[in-house]
Design a protein that fits this description.
12% strand
Length: 120
């Protein structure tokens, strides 16, 4: 998906964001980013997902090149494919925080406006 060099970069970038476009995939990436290598059992415990659903999300994250896995005996460990994924999550959280603050400021300003009487 990401390795297709015949497509424009903006399409490849859009595919990267498709890989991120689910709340549980973001949560899984946050869990993996917080540790060096994270076993599937920890992700199941922290997300509350059934193993089959987690497996589907991990498959998408692998397909889009965001995580890599390694099996050791009967345990599968995941880590970020690139450290920049953690940076991307951090920047997204900062942006979201700023957007929420701005939204709250707008709501506060709107609450201070005078009432408008209806003619009906």
């Amino acid at each position: 998906m990401l390795g297709d060099t015949t497509r424009p970069v903006y399409e490849i970038k859009a595919n990267l964001f498709k890989g991120l476009a689910h709340p549980y995939r973001i949560r899984v990436l946050e869990i993996v980013a917080a540790g060096d290598e994270v076993p599937v059992s920890v992700m199941i415990a922290e997300t509350g997902l059934e193993a089959s659903h987690l497996s589907q999300h991990l498959s998408v994250l692998r397909r889009y090149g965001l995580v890599v896995s390694e099996r050791r005996a009967s345990v599968v460990y995941y880590r970020l494919a690139f450290p920049q994924v953690a940076d991307l999550l951090h920047v997204a959280r900062q942006l979201l925080t700023e957007m929420l603050v701005l939204s709250q400021e707008h709501q506060t300003a709107a609450q201070g406006l005078p009432e408008i009487s209806s003619t009906r």
